[in-house]
Amino acid sequence: MGSRVNRVAVCALEPAEDHALGVLPGWAVPAICVLAGESWAENQHRFAVRVVDDGGATGHFGPVSASVAAIVREQVEPMLVGRDVQAWRHVSGIEPNGRHRRGAHARLAVSAVELALWDLRSRSAGVTVAELLGGQVRQVIPAYATALGIDVDHPLVADIASWLVAAGFWGQKWGLPGYDRGESPRADARRLARIRAAVGEEARLCVDARGRWDASYARQMLPVLAEHHVTWVEEPGAAIGSDLAGFGLVCAAGEHDYDPAEQIRRLTSGDVQVWQPDPVWNGGLAHSAHMIDLASALGIPCFPHGSGLAVSLQLAGVTNGDAVPAVEYHLTLAPLRQAVHAAPITPQHGTFALTDEPGLGASCGLDDPPTRGRCHVA
Fold this sequence. Notes:
This protein is α/β, with parallel strands linked by helices. The chain folds into two domains: 5-21 and 40-126 and 364-377, Enolase-like, domain 1; 132-353, TIM Barrel. It has helices spanning 41-44, 66-80, 88-92, 104-125, 129-132, 157-166, 185-199, 215-227, 241-245, 260-267, 285-297, 309-317, 333-337; strands at residues 5-13, 46-53, 58-65, 140-146, 172-175, 205-208, 233-234, 251-253, 274-275, 327-330, 351-353, 375-377. Strands 4, 5, 6, 7, 8, 9, 10 and 11 form an eight-stranded mixed β-sheet that branches. The protein has a four-stranded antiparallel β-sheet with strand order 3-2-1-12. Helix 2 crosses helix 4, helix 6 crosses helix 7 (185-199) and helix 7 packs parallel to helix 8 (215-227).
């Protein structure tokens, strides 16, 4: 009989006093807005999840927010204790205890525990997570750069966009703030034209509408996006796949589809041509791998969302480049998210090289003895 889950602990992490700039060159700093996410509750008080088996072996995942940590303690741990550590199919389908078991925070809590269990399995076996998932099929993973958090109106933006091309990123994604500011679509059209001129005609250029555009704004923006050969439009709000298709555009979505039924409805709707699963938000590693297989069967490429970079890289490493062409690297958020990690992950020449070390690579320095900061059981 294999090991069983003995307990699940939630550890409070000390606030990170600073965070690295990531890959952006120092001269780009003036263009960074008040750091995206720095004031969000989940980045103010951060926790890690530790799963302990009956032999004392541990696995970790983090950071998670205080809200997610509370659900782990109150609703997920009671459903997990006593389960077979190796029964990953069963564990990935576990639901929180109680009446309210759906929605974003519940899925984040399930994901965190599921990921900590993969870390435990890998470390206990002394093999990589990729080997446990069936074997690594590639060593180098391309990254696309998300430039949200950079002031798109700053004079340095053209230089930053050009630098991202020279740095070797698969592509780059920008936000257009015109709708939120109550501006005419012409203002966003000028911004997009400026970036396209900086990167050249061949560079992949994506736009994130963040689900904000109403039907009128979308109708005016779609021909502009087509004119500038945008690779995909992410979360285009009121516009649907058929609207974009009329202009030869591609719709990207998926990171905010939390529950499995919701994901399947969106993925099979015909309105999405690029799928962006987030294994830290959408249910963990096993479920995300299943959804990538489904997307691949439908001919839809996947670009894992960057909130859990180490996890997204594990998914990409066991999947071929047609199914997962690249993963997201958020230029301003990734350094903040990884500030509590023992070994932050950054791309080199626009790509990531996968590690051969056991573990998930997102332990928040909770190895014994701790390698970074302090952790106490909350």
